[in-house]
Amino acid sequence: MMRDIFTRASTTTLFIGEYEDDATTPTPYSTDVEPGSQAGDENAIALIRKLADDHHVFYLDFKTDTDSLPDKSFQVWYKATECIRSLITQPWWSRVWTVQEAILPSDPTVQYGAIKLSWMVFSQAVSNLAMHFHKRCCRVKVRNDLAEEPPIVTFYNKVTAVDRRRYHQLPLNMLLERFPDRKATDLRDMIYGVLGLAHDDAVAAGIEADYTIETVQLYAQTARKLIQLHGDLRPFMQVYHFHGDRLPGLPSWTPDYSLGGDWEYYSVALLYVQDFWKPIDMGTFKPPPGDNPLELDVSGILFDDIMAVGDTVTPCPNGRVIDVFDKWIDQIRFLGYWNTQYPTGEGTYGDNMWMILCRGLIWLGSHDYRMATHQDRQLMEDDIPTIPNGRPVNIDLQLLYYQRFFITRKGYMGLASPDIQVGDTVHVLVGGNTPFIMRKTGRTNCFSLVSAAFVHGIMQGGLLHKKEELESFTLV
After folding, report:
1. Residue 79 CB contacts under 8 Å (≥ 6 apart), including other chains
2. For a Cys-Cys bond, which of 77, 84, 206, 222 suits 57, CB 3.0-4.6 Å?
3. Would you put residue 445 in left (φ > 0), alpha (ψ -120 to 50) or beta?
4. How far is CA 381 from CA 157, 179, 190, 350, 352, in A?
5. Would you call 427 helix, strand, or coil by DSSP?
6. Helix (H), strand (E) at residue 321
7. How much is the average pLDDT of 196-202?
8. Helix (H/G/I), strand (E/B), else coil: 307
């Protein structure tokens, strides 16, 4: 019903919240205003309008751009970015049910206190901000350069999360991942609150609001229905055991749709790159009916087990990412592998290590990638020296966030989530676009799912040619 209301509405106002009305006389672009004040909030909106008008408001070396802002310095605009904090911390941005009212109307109006402006101003502002960032004409501090995410980056992330659905139809599976910072008092609403945005998927999968079932049952049921709908294991890409406390009793193979936070870099990146890979030759999977709705029967092969693990990359300055990467290299050298032939026969471990740094993908900008080939090695070698003090052109280091290096007994190198451990097994499953790390339980052929994985050398097919090679496994 809410979907129909918002879609058919001629005008819609999104009431973001009230700012604190004070006696401060607004002084446009003054560095004296404080975040949270009326003058500060008005400056924040003024900055957003400037961004929407395609002004260059961030400068290298704090210089003034006399063409676009003749009397304003970097410091003025930096103060305005701090003032954006009070806008983006309003409760409206954290409620899952408010997503529909921003996405479904054709041109919603944003109201913040007495200020009104079109949502399209927000959209144009973040679009221009991204363009300037990628053109490198303006310096914007991003999350991995600082201890805390700057408010302007948070504003970009929150608006972009909405706009990706406003302008592009997203499947329900991605929508359930799109708004990790939104919350609901009833955890079932983390699913029900976005059903109207993927109406066709929800109907086809048979997912509808039903408050008679408990949250754990709902999450497991939703994951199973999405697997049935798409014929693949895409919900597995959203399983993160390393972040937060999962709901008690939730099966290991089921995403906890109530979790949110810093892992969004890891999760969003994986969702965009998973379609590049196809390690198996029989991709369609239909889960067989089972007696226990909290268990899932899958088929595939146990490819190998993990022999050694390395350090984990977390969101940090680029130089620290390289420090961790160097430790992975040291580990390969310590094991005596560096100058020996890699299992695929294409060069030594030293020749293949760059594939781990880029996670097998060449970055084209934003969320666009292409698969790396051995002909791209020179691109990587040219990029690596720029990383500690700059931003690489061809390597998206966010693909390494929350990734831990591992080596299997057969000698394959890979990356997976931080909670993998020695003895975990690498599986290739029908319906999976990546290998998966699983952990043995006390039952025969029974495992818990730990993580999706990147395993260099098996990501592009060639496995599971014959059905008789398949084994059956139960995930709990």
Report:
1. 30, 31, 33, 43
2. 77
3. left
4. 31, 36, 43, 12, 12
5. strand
6. helix 318-334
7. 84
8. strand
Please give the model's pTM, rounded to 2 decimal places: 0.84
Residues 6 or more apart whose Cβ sits within 8 Å of residue 448: 252, 253, 438, 439, 441, 475, 476
Residue-range domain boundaries for the chain = 2-165
Beta carbons within 8 Å of 119's beta carbon, 6+ residues apart: 14, 102, 107, 108, 109, 110
Q: Provide CB contacts within 8 A for 469, sequence distance 6+.
A: 301
Are 102 and 138 contacting, i.e. CB atoms less than 8 angstroms apart? no
For residue range 323-335, list pLDDT tens digits in order. 999 999 999 999 9
CA distance 450 to 309: 14
Distance separating alpha carbons of residues 412 and 458, to the nearest angstrom:
9
The residue that leads in pLDDT, 406 or 100, is 406
- Both tokens of 187, joined, read 């955890």
Number of helical (H) and strand (E) elements in the chain, helices listed first: 14, 13
pLDDT tens, residue by residue, 302-322: 999 999 999 999 888 888 999
Residue 476: partners with Cβ closer than 8 Å, 6 or more residues away:
251, 252, 294, 295, 441, 443, 446, 447, 448
Q: Is the dihedral of CA 58, 60, 63, 69 positive or negative?
A: negative
- CA–CA gap between residue 448 and residue 163 (Å, rounded): 36
CA–CA separation, 402 and 404 (whole Å):
7
What SS3 state is found at 463?
strand
Name the burial class of residue 3, with classes exposed (0-12), middle (13-18) and buried (19+) by CB atoms within 10 angstroms of its CB. Answer: middle
Is 31 in contact with 75 (CB distance < 8 Å)? Answer: yes
Assigned token pair, 62: 């704090």
Residue 273 has a pLDDT of 65
- Strands annotated E in 84-184: 109-112, 115-118
pLDDT score at 473: 96
Q: How many CB atoms neighbour CB 175 within 10 A?
A: 23
Whether residue 153 contacts residue 142, with contact meaning beta carbons closer than 8 Å, is answered with yes
CA-based nearest residue to 298, from 193, 405, 429, 192: 429
Distances (CA, A) of 51 to 93, 163, 185, 278: 20, 16, 35, 41
Report how far residue 149's alpha carbon sits from residue 347's, in angstroms, rounded to the nearest whole number: 40
Query: Are 415 and 400 a contacting pair, CB within 8 Å?
Result: yes
Phi, psi at 328, each rounded to 5°: -65, -40
